[in-house]
Amino acid sequence: MVQNSFKYSEITPKKMFLNRRNLLQTGLSSSILTISGSLGWCNSTPVKSEWSTNRKPNSYNDITSYNNFYEFGTDKSDPKKYAHKLSTKPWKVEISGLVEKPGFYDFGDLIDGIVLEERIYAFRCVEGWSMVVPWVGFSLSQILKKIKPESSAKYVAFETLFRPDEMFGQRYKILDWPYREGLTIAEAMHPLTILATGLYGEDLPKQNGAPLRLVVPWKYGFKSIKSIVKISLTDKQPVSSWNKQNPTEYGFYSNVNPEVDHPRWSQATERPIGNGIFAKRRKTLKFNGYGDEVAALYVGMDLKKYF
Ligand SMILES: Nc1nc2c(c(=O)[nH]1)N[C@H]1C(S)=C(S)[C@@H](COP(=O)(O)O)O[C@H]1N2
Ligand SMILES: [Mo]
Known about the structure:
By secondary structure, the protein is of the alpha+beta class. It contains 9 helices and 13 strands.
């Protein structure tokens, strides 16, 4: 295993401590610790992946207490208060559509063998706020390789679970539930597109979309769908919940673009969360600063039309 990577079972420092103590108690410590040492136990803190930004991450508190997760209410403080009601064990993900290996995968089986990385990404919400988040995750392309899309597949569609007894927001017609999102195959295969399973080196808190959520850093935050239970490959453009709700305000592509304003507000600048309400706004960068990596995906497209 390479040095700057670590596996799902190894990311929680608490868990590692307990494992070691168990080993010590059984008296098998020396031999097993030697083996596991070579598997990276001593490298529990991942170094930045090559795709990470140099910008300073927001605090754990900022990232986990200022959220959009309408299934748990529309206030930024609601998800932290109510997301604990969601049960995430067991967790199955349905893989369907134009793939060679469809099925209901247990979360653990789906990510089995995949090496997790820390990806520090800029994150820009369509409402005008932004954060920097140290995600733990892996390129979505790794899952796609496992499930083998057929050549006719042109898009990847995602769905959040529908469970109104645990997610009280789903009892109200705020959106046409379940929350849905989609990407083109090229976007989904891009190495910057990740499925996150954690942040700050720990399992994903429920308010941030446990146990598995999408993160597409050059797009507005609403594309980064949380608590995914279904991934399907299609030949038609999938439903995107906000696009369906209000197509004149939210496009399918939703690339961060300071040159294309939202009909009701400018997208030229953003408010970084965490520095107080009077903090200086930042200029929003095209593709959220990831233009060198992703602009090639949209060559020849009119981004005012395909917003
Ligand atoms: N299922 C689901 N996913 C969702 C949302 C939601 O309401 N439901 N909100 C989106 C929006 S608008 C944003 S900005 C991000 C917020 O992610 P964060 O709370 O981890 O910062 O989640 C996105 N994913
Ligand atoms: Mo958002």
